Amino acid sequence: MAYSHVNSKGQTYYLHKKDVTLKGGRQQTIYYFGKEAKEAAIDELPEGYMVIENERTGLPILKKANK
Fold first, then answer.
1. Which residue among 2, 23, 45, 48 has its CA within the 20 to 30 Å range from the CA of 12?
2. How far is CA 51 from CA 25, 56, 64, in A?
3. DSSP H or E segment with residue 53
4. What is the pTM of this model?
């Protein structure tokens, strides 16, 4: 089951993960939320991250948690 977040407007978003190659050749993992759970959806939050919400649009954003 994909990790989901319900925003303040009552909309459900699902967390996805994608490995990309940057211009310099470095590999990086990006996380993003979508309205539908697709193949790239992941089951849990990555360790050290938390979900915040854009106040204006209600879109969830993944942010590194302060230690």
1. 48
2. 29, 15, 9
3. strand 49-53
4. 0.89
All structural domains of the chain with their residue ranges: 4-64
Which of the 8 DSSP states describes residue 35?
A: S
DSSP annotation of 10: S
The pLDDT tens digits for 6-44 are 999 999 999 999 999 999 999 999 999 999 999 999 999
Strands (E), 7-66: 12-21, 27-34, 49-53, 60-64
What 8-state DSSP symbol labels residue 19? Answer: E
Decide if 64 contacts 31 (C-beta within 8 A): no
CA atoms within 13 A on the CB side of 17: 10
